[in-house]
Design goal:
The protein is mainly α. It has ten helices and no strands.
């Protein structure tokens, strides 16, 4: 068995130690699948993708090889399911953070970014495994399919939040501009994860987002005194609205 490095992250309802004997207790198929997915995560954390094998995953889960093959056809299918698992963890944490942020659209967008830059998502093993999974999506079709699905959903969510921020400011944005902004935010998040993984003592991700986010909002909505993402019709409507507001103030002003 390959030499393991010390793992600090323990997925829910799992133990870091390798079980010494197989478990034959009757469990539901969903329970066994989740057990194997968490064992795959643990194996990737401890040994990396190359050394992780179906036999090693079985040992980590305390199950027989036959049990593994009953639920998953291959190592690739197990790793693809693990990719979905780590993405679901991020989405669940994002749901909670956005709900806690309240109704303000700007705070909800900020919460979506911050959730990836603090525990439990900002965990060395979690980020390391995501990095391994990204690299596999370049060469494995099943992984590429999961990657497109999970990041497509993430991108759509960012676009929706960004559109909410723009709408709250009376700005209409074109779909391609909302898409470009969402991709920019995803690239930013991935870059912070990689840099933090390399030099965690030199980077404070939460402080970084506290500085980056106001600059982002200013660049998108206030640069040069205009809204760079506003289309012509929305800009004209905004100007008319502002003029009408000023006219009402003048009309109501005391003689």
């Amino acid at each position: 068995m390959p030499t393991a490095r010390k793992s600090r992250f323990v997925p829910p309802s799992t133990k870091p130690a390798v079980p010494k004997r197989w478990s034959f207790l009757k469990k539901s198929p969903d329970f066994r699948r989740q057990q194997l997915i968490e064992a795959t995560f643990r194996s990737l954390c401890l040994y990396g993708e190359t050394a992780t094998s179906v036999r090693l995953i079985a040992a980590q889960a305390g199950l027989s090889l036959g049990m593994v093959r009953h639920h998953f056809k291959s190592k690739g299918e197990l790793i693809a399911a693990t990719y979905q698992f780590v993405s679901d963890r991020f989405n669940a944490a994002a749901d909670e953070a956005i709900e806690a942020a309240g109704p303000d659209p700007t705070e909800r967008l900020k919460a979506m970014l911050l959730v990836g830059l603090r525990p439990p998502i900002l965990d060395r093993d979690y980020v390391r495994v995501r990095n391994i999974l990204w690299s596999l999506s370049d060469s494995d079709e099943a992984m590429r399919r999961v990657h497109r699905q999970t990041y497509g959903r993430f991108q759509a969510r960012l676009e929706c939040l960004f559109n909410d921020v723009a709408a709250a400011r009376g700005i209409a944005v074109r779909p391609e501009e909302a898409t470009a902004t969402a991709i920019l935010l995803m690239v930013f998040l991935k870059g912070v994860w990689i840099e933090w993984l390399i030099a965690p003592d030199d980077l404070n991700p939460q402080k970084l987002i506290e500085r980056f986010f106001p600059l982002l909002m200013h660049s998108l909505f206030n640069a040069s005194g205009t809204e760079p993402h506003m289309d012509k019709h929305a800009h004209a409507a905004s100007v008319q609205k502002a003029q009408a507001k000023r006219a009402r103030k003048i009309t109501r002003a005391p003689a």
